[in-house]
Amino acid sequence: MITLYGIPNCNTVKKARQWLADNGIDYHFHDFKKQGIDAERLHAWAAQVPLAKLVNRQGTTWRALPDEVKTAADSLEGAVALMLDKPSVIKRPVLEWDGKTGVGFAEAEWAERFGL
Description:
The chain is an alpha+beta fold. The protein has a single domain, classed as 3-Layer(aba) Sandwich (Glutaredoxin). The protein contains seven helices and four strands, in the order E-H-E-H-H-H-H-H-E-E-H. A four-stranded mixed sheet has the order 2-1-3-4, with no helix packed on it. The longest helix is centred in the first third of the chain and has 12 residues, at 11-22. The radius of gyration is 14 Å and the shape is globular. The two termini are 18 Å apart. Pfam families: ArsC. InterPro entries: Arsenate_reductase-like, Thioredoxin-like_sf, Tscrpt_reg_Spx/MgsR.
């Protein structure tokens, strides 16, 4: 089963969901702002995706953080604590498929990933 994690009003998540629908790919959507996310899942993602890619350091949520929180996010435990507290700092979308994890949406990469 493919699971797409994100926030429904995020433009990139909207594009990813539309792409999956347009290509007839069944998936489950998990809104991590409403449904939450747990530390175990975040650790699993971080085992496959570098923290620099998993933590969105470009958004308004990140920019509003105090410097000590930003610095703490350089470590795994600091980043997990931050993502649990503020899921908006998770780079979107996160895609899980066949025991793998990917972050972000790039149409060409997804087409290759799904053999299209």
